[in-house]
Amino acid sequence: MNRLPFEKRKQIIHLMVEGNGINAITRLTGVSKMTTLRYLGIAGQACMAHHDKAVRGVKASRVECDEIWSFNYCKKAKLATAKAAPEGAGDAWTWTAIDADSKLIVSYLIGGRDADAAQDFMHDVADRLATRVQLTTDGHGAYLSAVLGAFGIDVDYAQLVKHYGPTADLAGPERKYSPGECCGISKRRVIGKPIKGLVSTSYVEKHNQTMRQHMRRFTRLTSGHSKKIDNHVAMVALYTTFYNFARINSAVRMSPAMACGLEQRLWDIGDIVKLIEEWETQE
Questions:
Q1: In a domain, 81, yes or no
Q2: Phi, psi at 47, each rounded to 5°
Q3: I need a surface site. Which of 22, 108, 228, 250 has the fewest CB within 10 A?
Q4: Is 146 left (phi over 0), alpha (psi -120 to 50) or beta?
């Protein structure tokens, strides 16, 4: 790949993490689609390595976990009739763990919504924490054995289960794209002594919206979805580094990494590009 000028690389990265699709980026920058995707792949690997090294020993007190749906190449229901579907095509679930105080993404994982993915995800969360935490998830059954396997009894764990009713008053498109009305919640203590008033998944659910706004691949009802799973994984890795280190969170008025004590200053896009360059030289 021809080496792009530093400012051009900054522009590409900035456009990616602000919700622009690959085709839009090629039009705005004049860089070919193939070169842009290759640079995304390199950026993703560099950011994955950085997250794995830098986000360790997190001193959190409350952690919230959730899964967000997207798809790669085509939806799972279309796989049977899809032509030349690549490996990894179909539904792709992104699991995220958020520190409720600093808003840091402690861990993320892309895979299925099954027990194996839950086990891998929870073990990674546990490995990155330095303190006993109060953990909250939704009512997904795979979390139960995964949390116990990763934390044992060294966690205060509760599930928040939302109950939805019918939306009989809606019809047409509104009925199709609107969720059922939430008519109640249940808070279930699972392990330890979680404080009932702090059992919540509000922050991680709000972060799901942030992910959809900053990554075109997560925007529903468009053609911006990922066509290859490797590109999807790379974009999530790039976004995570941007979100943790180079984006001011309005709730804490600094980057989550600064609020959590993992970093002393706010990064800019140039710092991410330098991180990618350093990773390239090491490889």
A1: yes
A2: -70, -35
A3: 250
A4: alpha
Kind plus residue range of the DSSP H or E element containing 211? helix 202-214
pLDDT of 1 reads 47
* β partners of residue 91: 71
Which residue in 90, 60, 43 sits closest to 241, CA to CA?
43
Structure tokens at 44: 């993703």
Amino acid letter, residue 211: M
- Summarised one tens digit per residue, pLDDT across range 76-115 is 888 888 888 888 888 999 999 999 999 999 999 999 999 9
The answer to whether 106 and 256 are in contact (CB under 8 A) is: no
Place of tokens 């998830």: 137
- Please indicate, yes or no, if residue 153 is contained in any of the structural domains: yes
Q: Token pair 């990494």 is at which residue?
A: 257
Quote the number of domains for the chain: 1
Rounded CA gap, 142 and 116, in Å?
8
Best CA proximity match to 1, nearest among 29, 28, 37: 37
Flag whether 18 is in a domain.
no
Q: Which amino acid is at 260?
A: C
Q: Residue 183 is encoded by which pair of tokens?
A: 């008519």
Give the pTM. 0.92
Question: Distances from the Cα of 154 to the Cαs of 125, 126, 150, 157, in angstroms?
Answer: 13, 10, 9, 9
Q: Is residue 7 part of a domain?
A: no
State how far the Cα of 218 lies from the Cα of 224, in Å rounded to an integer.
8
DSSP state of 196: G
Residue for token pair 């795979």: 142
φ, ψ for residue 77, nearest 5 deg: -65, -20
Do the beta carbons of residue 44 and residue 242 sit within 8 Å?
no
